[in-house]
Amino acid sequence: MTPLALIDNLEHLPNPFTQFDGIATHLAKNTLQLKKPEYQRDLQLALCFIYSYNGSQATFNSYRREVERLLLWSWNIANCPSTQLRRDQIEEFIHFCVAPPENWIGTKNVARFKLHMGERVANKEWRPFVAHVSKLEFKNGSTPQTKQHSLSQAAIRATFSILSSYYGFLLQEDAVQQNPVALIRQKSKFVKKEITRKQVRRISNLQWDYVIETAEILAEEDPVHHERTLFIMNALLGMYLRISELVADERSAPVMGDFIKDADGHWWFKVLSKGNKERLIAVSDDMLNALIRYRRFRDLPMLPTIAENTPLVPKNRGQGAMTSSRQIRNIVQLCFDNAHQRMCEDGMSADADDLRVATVHWLRHTGISEDVKTRPKEHVREDAGHSSMATTDKYIDTEYRERHASGRKKTLRPQ
């Protein structure tokens, strides 16, 4: 059978610590297992674990996805609560996730629940897994097919990590006697060992020149819509920002007052990053000039004032700050697509190829990669918000350059 969703979006999910009975009663209408106390307890523990991550929408969604899949498999395939699963059954579950049956796979993202006659009901079109095609394949007319579903190595690692945390929580709640995920010794049969240091995905300096020129052209032609585009592009590269650090969410709402001038007259940008950690980013002279241009367009004083609450990136329509990360992606994609077209028209099709597959996050990688060439890596690490120097080190390409330079001298006819 095709399973129905169990866990609604955070904004529609009552507090399971205090309102679980209502949640269970509501779900039991369509989920037969919830007629039994052991399954109700299983769901309650899972909900309490996931709800503990309500401080971040993205983290909540990730943990919900993995734990919900486990519950659905455990209840429908293993026919027992997740608290009773053994190590070998967890391995079966991982194998299942790698190759789920087609009726568990969707070809588009749909809401888990929808509103029907004033009540939140499970959406029958939702599936636990979703098949995707790459951005380039989609542009070329390909559509997702259920038979093409596959889990990336990163997704499998995330499954192990999150489920291990889940069973760690169950141990603390005395719901299990051991962590079956931690007992799996040979994870290598599921997760391949990666090369020591992967190359960073970034766009070239030439591609960036075309991208930012494209944003400037758009701003000149239609300032009402694209002065904001130009500022977003500069901020993403110039301050290594993630999408989540530009849009307003339940954790924070970036405002102009987050630009701060210290006692020496230096400007910094305060941002709430991953793990709810605040960091200060050194604002370059070019970035400050980009801010000044943007503020002038918005009829604001040249520079922000202390505690200014003006939204950093406002909506195009309506009041308040932009809350849609998808809108940021669309803005960046517009610049990438137009820049790619301009490069092709200038006879540089081969140099433009990366722009067809680049994502927003590549701009962060590009900014860090360039800065680490000239700035102390400790400074770049602080601005980027990396938890360890090892993360910053992967942006240093000197080792690759030297290794390839020596490799180019090899001959096919050794002396």
Automatic annotation (TrEMBL):
Residues 374-385, 394-405 have a biased composition (Basic and acidic residues). It comes from the Bacteria. It is found in: Cytoplasm. The keyword DNA-binding applies. Residues 374-415 are annotated as: Disordered. Its main location: cytoplasm. Keywords: DNA integration, DNA recombination, DNA-binding. The keyword DNA-binding applies. Residues 406-415 have a biased composition (Basic residues). InterPro entries: DNA_brk_join_enz, Integrase-like_cat_sf, Integrase_catalytic, Integrase_recombinase_N, Tyrosine_recombinase_XerCD. This is Site-specific integrase. It comes from Marinomonas maritima.
